[in-house]
Amino acid sequence: MKPLRKRAVSRTILGVVLIVIILVASAGIYFGFMSGTGKSSTTSSSSTTSTGSSTTSSSSTTTTSSGQTKTSLQVDELTEPDYLDPAVTYETSGWEVVEQIYQGLLTYNGSSYTTYEGVLASGWTISPDGMNYTFELRPNVVFSNGDPFNAYVMWYSVYRTLVMNQAPSWILSQNLIAGNGMSFNVTDSMLNSINYFNPSSSNLTVMNRPDQSVVALNASAIQFNLGYGYNGVEPYSAFLATLVTPMAYAVDPAVVASHGGVVADTENDYMTTNALGTGFYELQSWVLGQSVSLVKNQNYWANSLPKSQLNNAIAPAILNDIIIYYKDSATSIADLRAGSVQMIGVPVTYYNVTAPISGVKTAILPIEFGSSEDVHYLYMDTQAFPLFNNIDVRKAIANAIDYQDIIRIVFSGHAQQWIGPVPPGFQYYNESTAGLSPYQYSPVQAAVYLAQAGFVAHLPNGTTLNPGGRQFPTVSFLYDSDNPTDEGAAEIILSNLGAIGIPITLAALPFRQYATTIDSPSSTNSSFAMGFGYYSEDYTASIDYVSYFTTANQIGTSAYVDSQVLNYTYQADAALNGSTIVAAFRSITQSMYQNYTDIWLYVPEFMAVTANGVTGIFPNPAGSGMGYFLYYNTISYTS
Amino acid sequence: MIALRDFLPYLGKRVLGAIGVLIGAMLLVFFISYILNPNPAHLWAGARASKSTIAAVIARYHLDQPWYVQLYYFLQSYVTGNLGVDPQTGKSIISEMAFYFPNTLELVLVSMVMIAVLGVASGYFAGMHFGTKIDHSIRIFYLATWSSPYYLGGFLAILVFSSYIPLFPSGGMYSLTLGNQPAHITGLYILDALIQLNGPAFLSGLQHVFMPAAVLALLDFGLVARIMRSSILNARWSTHVKAARAKGMEEGEVRRNHILRNALIDTNTIIAVTFGFLLSGTIVIEEIFAWPGIGYFTYQAIVSINYPVLVPCVLLFTLGVIVANFIADVFYSLLDPRIALGEGGGSEG
Q1: Closest to A419 in 3D by CA, of A428, A411, A406, A410
Q2: pLDDT tens across A278-297, in order?
Q3: Does B199 lie at the interface with A, CB-CB under 8 angstroms?
Q4: How far is the C-alpha of A68 from the C-alpha of A354, rounded, in Å?
Q5: Which of A52, A590, A635, B293 is deepest in the core (most CB within 10 A)?
Q6: Is the peptide bond before B102 cis (omega within 30 degrees of 0)?
Q7: Which among B173, B176, B200 is the nearest to A323, CB-wise?
Q8: Cα(A157)–Cα(A174) distance, integer angstroms
């Protein structure tokens, strides 16, 4: 092949072309500044924000004429939402955004997580047998696009969640089903065919039908009938808590209908990244991988209500904009230090970093906030690794772990040991654990138990017990590689167990793989026979935790099934009075504790980090906002 | 001038080679994913997904079938030009990549300009001042930055220029407080702002891209600088440069036409190759600076063994390297008329 020749281009021509490009670009930029600035000013004139800065710093963009009160709040946290559809989202970061845009019938009362107040409902009654919940709805509620809210919309919204049947729908389907599951099933086509704003008589016949889970009694009253879900024909002690979750939030049927409608067992693409509700904020943008921006709902239905009728959950928003950026912890702290954000969500292991920053409040919250985030334990899958069926082996492991060392080294003291399955700080924890002490570190006792189980064991002084016994086989120990505290704790446990004669190898998986592994049904696969388990609340009720630990039968719950404990769980599920629940929880706690089913490890504390001028937060362990409050509407910020 | 009759066969050969590489990459990622997790339905459906949700994922992606059946359906989506649906988000993979890729391209393009300027300039000065303090200083600097990990450079930059001296935002592509955002035309935010003469958005884009691009450039310009320096040394001591000086050519002309130009031949190749690798190498920087690019998207797919997403991402990266190499070869022959396309000298990628 012949060499290819380069075209000779005159340097003069190149120079001229270059100059022309630079001139055109400069002119473009110049005129762009002029026209762009003008456009921006016009756009922002409707709000009190000022323009002129293009950084993410709110301090330069939101100052009013007084220079003190801010109209915008900027926030850094770690994880972006999974979805924005209330029927699909199943992560704290998704709930956080959804809670600002959508609303449900009721919510927790201020900072309480055991009492409730109305949101879209003005009041409710519960039948004496606990099987029927009737809600009166507030009048004149509208979605941010002006579409009306009524009982028929609520009927649609709850059934939509059940028909779509996405991961979190079980929260409702414990007690409800789409229809009644026998003679009457609500289907996707049925949901898509009804006029909810002006229902026909045939529409009303469907929604008024009394023998179903949800009955729209009329436009302003709705009834929930329990007993159709998989819990069986029984009341449920935490039913109101399940209605606080996004699964029971009001969704505009017209918006869904114009974007594909409801499809059974399928998520709606549009709804997963867009949002429109009755709440005090609207979604302005979700830049995937970067940020979510919320703007005050100017058409908010409660704007016209007198103050006497407002509560913290329905009060109109104080701030015009909330921008949530998704950044790692180190960057979040840098932003807070620079004043470019006012709230950050970082683990408690950063306490010693944020506490000394001037102009910043760092507060350790009561332990129930840590519990709602996650409780940690060690699982031993008896099905995958039959040696764990020997209680002496489990006792040896429980005694071999230096719990306080983990808390001191890994968490700098900001964690608490606990006894499960009721999480510390939650209702009935003290009553359930009365008379019990958390598992204690005792390497001598651990070696004795291991020797009793027939294995070679070692005392701290080097003495070998049962030298003729079997060597304990190596066990693979699973932890979450995305969680630095898991890694630190795993290394301590590796050392602790190795010291008495139980060799383990650490097996790390990224969070998503880790989470699905421990939530898988137990099998004879011993790849992850032992490891860290964790549980975060789905709704704020002790029974949520207890049910997980006693009924799940998964790798992460030690494949534990005990018929007697199951019965206690069912009793607590259906109990209408506290004493029955306490008795059931106490029996469960003692049984699991004495059986060493799971080794209860620690609950990391939870901390709130805000700029000094941020006020109006109602901390609530049920909240997803930065992990410790529900709503941004009451928050204000002055610098 | 490159004759079309010479260029087309060369191009055809390169395209055929590229197709082979792409198919190989596709199969490799598919099989690695399959070996890691033959049935990722639970992983894709999410923790605590219901049985019916998991069953729907299995049915949609034929995960209960043997590997060759899965591969058949997977390849079918490529043959039809439809890359399928992301099993985790339920969205079209093409539309997701169309959102993420331009963001990465913007970051890499800005970074490449910085790398080219920094690398060529510092390599030139080091080479022209061989053995002096300037040469030593430049070499120490680029070796230090080149051997630094991205996360260190990223966090240091944020700490200094976002926290202590708040000159630049610590993350994101643009300010959300701007009232008027440019409409999506090319997907490159800065370019879109420029096209629509939106000054504040243009400035905001520049301000946001500067720090991540500068960190990428600072940590990657070392290779270019090093090649440039050694090329300058080779050129300085070559006989044709000595001959040019002996003929009385002006020093400035000697440097421009005989030293710099010759040195740029190898450097150009390295710049082009660096571009290809940067496209796939921004994962860490995108994570640190909350930059919603293809690296971020790929990382999410990797941790979920989400091969329907992972494969097209890897193909995109592979394509980036192939195209960059190809462009380097073309420039190679343009810069040096002695070098023919496809006949040695140029990298065959």
Answers
A1: A428
A2: 999 999 999 888 899 999 99
A3: yes
A4: 24
A5: B293
A6: no
A7: B176
A8: 17
Determine the Cα–Cα distance for residues A565 and A572; give it in Å rounded to an integer. 11
Which of A40, A54, A513 is facing B43, going by the closest CB pair?
A: A513
State how far residue B135 is from chain A, nearest Cα, in angstroms. Answer: 30
pLDDT above 70 as % of chain B: 93
Q: How many CB atoms lie within 10 A of CB B348?
A: 11
Q: What is the DSSP string of B33-83?
A: HHHH-S-THHHHH-TT--HHHHHHHHHHHTTTS-HHHHHHHHHHHHHTT--
Hunting for tokens 């002084």 — which residue is that? A461
The answer to whether residue A13 scores a pLDDT higher than 60 is no
Residue A548 pLDDT > 60: yes
Task: Evaluate whether A104 touches A355 at the Cβ level (below 8 Å).
Answer: no
For chain B, where are the alpha helices, taking DSSP H only? 4-36, 41-45, 51-61, 67-79, 93-128, 133-146, 150-158, 189-195, 199-236, 239-246, 251-253, 261-280, 283-288, 294-303, 307-335
Burial of residue A434 (CB within 10 Å: 0-12, 13-18, 19+) is: exposed
Burial class of residue A68 (count of CB atoms within 10 Å of its CB; 0-12, 13-18, 19+): exposed
Three-class SS state of B97: helix
How far apart (Å, rounded) are the C-alpha atoms in residues B191 and B106?
9
B341 touches A at CB < 8 Å: yes
Q: B254 in the Ramachandran plot: left (φ > 0), alpha (ψ -120 to 50) or beta?
A: alpha
| Per-residue pLDDT reduced to its tens digit, B90-139 | 788 888 898 899 999 999 999 999 999 999 999 999 999 999 999 999 99
By the 8 A CB rule, do A448 and A392 touch?
A: no
User: Which helix (H) or strand (E) segment is A585 a member of?
Assistant: helix A578-595
What's the pLDDT at A24?
A: 54
Report the pLDDT averaged over residues A584-600: 97
Distance from CA of B104 to the nearest CA of A (A): 12
What are A405-447's pLDDT values in tens digits?
999 999 999 999 999 999 999 999 999 999 999 999 999 999 9
All residues at 6 or more sequence positions from B58 whose CB lies less than 8 Å from its CB, including other chains:
B39, B41, B64
Torsion of CA A250, A252, A257, A260, to 10 degrees: -60
Centroid of chain to Cα A536: 7
Closest alpha carbon within chain B to A292: B176
The A residues from 303 to 332 touching B (CB cutoff 8 Å) are 321, 323, 325-328, 330-331
Question: Which pLDDT band, with edges at 50, 70 and 90, does A16 fall under?
Answer: low
Residues 6+ apart with CB under 8 A from B175: A53, A54, A55, A56, A61, B169, B204, B208
Residue A69: per-residue pLDDT:
86
Put simply, the answer to whether A61 touches B177 (Cβ < 8 Å) is yes
Q: Indicate whether A115 pLDDT > 80.
A: yes
> What percentage of chain A exceeds 70 in pLDDT?
90
The Cα–Cα gap between A50 and B224 comes to 44
> Rounded to whole angstroms, how far apart are CA atoms A579 and A570?
15
Interface confidence (ipTM) of the complex = 0.75
Give how far A404 is from chain B: nearest CA, Å: 31
Enclosing H/E stretch for A607: strand A607-611
* d(C-alpha B33, C-alpha A48), whole Å: 52
User: Two tokens at A249?
Assistant: 């939030």
CA–CA separation, A456 and A463 (whole Å): 11
Residue A427 corresponds to which tokens in the numbers above? 């209702």
> Which helix or strand (DSSP H or E) is residue A12 part of?
helix A11-44
Task: State the best of B176, B181, B297 to mutate against chain A, taking most chain A CBs within 10 Å.
Answer: B176
B169 with A55: Cβ contact below 8 A: yes
